[in-house]
Structure formats: C-alpha cells, structure tokens
Input
Amino acid sequence: MAFTGDMLTHSPLWNQALENTGDKGYDFRPMLARLAPLLNPVDLAVCHLETPIAPEGEQFTTAPAYGVPPEVVDSIAAAGYDRCSTASNHTLDRGTAGIDRTVSVLESRGVEQSGMARTPEEITPRVFEMAGVKVSHLSYTFGYNGSLPPAGQEWRSALIDPDRVIADARAAEYLGAEIVIVSMHWGNEGIATPTAAQVALADTITASGAVDLIVGHHAHVLQPIEQVNGTWVMYGLGNILSNLTTSSRWPASSQDGAVATIEFTVSRDGKVTASTPVVHPTWVDRDAGWLVRPVVTELADPATPPGTRTQLEISLARTRELLGPYVTTG
Output
C-alpha cells in the first residue's frame, strides 16, 4: 500500500493547469506524473484530497474556502491512486453541493473515497477487496473551520471521536474487513511535532486493537512515524502538492512530502502483520510548474539540473532529519 499527504489546489496551480493546455482546459496531470512509478506497483494507493471540487457551474475558489477544478481528479487517477481520504477542515467549504460534486467526480474517474457522503449509507464503514484481502478505509477530521452541516445531515462527513473511530473499525471487522486503515486530519499547521491530542488519540485508538494503520495529514509538514501499541502511526505525511510558499507562517518544509509504503500480510488465522514503512521523499518544484519530484529518484538521475539538484538535496536533508530510519536509500 502507498499513502500521501495533503493535496491543496491553490489558484496558481489551476492557472498552471490552464497554461498546460494553452488555455483550452485544465491539465494537472504533469504535476503528479512522476509519482506513477511509485504508485502503480502497489495494490492500493491512497491520496488525501483536502479540497472539495467546485459545484458544477460555480466559480473556483482558493484559500480560505476552496472549490477547485474537477480536472484535478484526472491527475489523481492518472498518477495511479485508487482512492482518497476526503474528510478535512475544508469539507464544507462549498457546502453539501461541494461534497456531492466531489464524490461524484471521483466516482466518475474510478477513484473511491472515504470521508464525504452523498447519502447516510456512504459514511458508514465499507469493505472492499484488494489482492484477495478485505480492507476498510475510514476517514475523519478535527472540524470544518467553524462550519456545520445542515441540521439532520451530520452524516455528510465524520468528526474525530475515538469512540466512533473504534466503533466504526469494529463494524468494518464485522463486515469482514481483515485490515482497517484510518485516515486522520489532525495536528497543528506548520508544526512537525505531534500535538498532545494526536498522541492521546493514537494511543486510545491503537490500544483498542481495532485498527491496523493510522495515516495523518493537515499539518502541511512531515511528522514522525512510530509504532503505538504495536500499530504503525504515520502522524503526518506533509504536502504532496500545494503552493504554500515559504514565509513566517509556512516553513520551507511545507513543500516536502512523502509516498509512504507499507506491506501487510494476513495469515490463515487472520493475524495481520505490517512491515516497517518505507518513506519515498517528495518535493514540489514550484519553479518548474509545480512538479512533484520523487527526491531520491531524481537525485540519482544525472540529467537533473544542478539548481534543482541543490533544492532536492536540501529537501532530502530535512526529511532525513525527521524520518531518517524510514527513508529509502534508492
């Protein structure tokens, strides 16, 4: 399996996507194309689509309330992603129409999702098969930036509540899931150290024995990976794609991300064993059209330009400082 962090489609990205077609539409595919060799070989590749798709006929909007072009999903599918987590603080940025549009566009491109719902049934735990193994993927967020779903439609997304997460995971197991993955939109923006709340939630949820992996996002920088109660927790996988420019608010590491891979084995008696995660560092090259560059691969390529190589080396040093034991060597 492979997982990546926040995908934030800021307006400069869709302006670049428009330029990519000569003003004849939006093409985000070049931005994620270099991830395909990492995503295509795995049985399950999961993105985190933080921003809703703009309802049909409505204008696109960027931060603080997003509504992005549907063509961004074409790039997600083309890169090799199979599904996305979608519960985030921006879930309700464009209301329930944005939720409906996002789920429908993903569905039309063959990309499954967890975290948004057009109907009450879509937010309940579901089980799918991957390489002969039954899997459930759940997605939760800390909040919606002060917005609330309409009365009676609280099912539109899922808020983080450890009791709910554990209950949903047990429900998935009852439905036949052998592996349960939980995506968590949590933490403090720009801070690599997990908050006390993240640590406490990870401890409570993993202590239940009901989940097999926790994957985090929202901080927009990489956060540690560690085992908690014997279960791997990826506290934060940074930004896979964004335009968070270096500033007093956003450190340079906000352009660092990762494709984190992990292998699961399910024995005949149902025991799940997880391998040590492997981190494939990424870096967003804004100057080259917001290309997401797999850092180690491109550093090994003699054709990589000197200036780009320098930036990749700096990014790799940051990632190794935080995630050294897990970073791939080739």
Remarks:
- The chain has one domain: 2-326.
- The first strand starts at residue 2 and ends at 7.
- The two ends are 18 Å apart (CA to CA).
- Residues 2-326 form a domain with the Purple Acid Phosphatase; chain A, domain 2 fold (CATH 3.60.21).
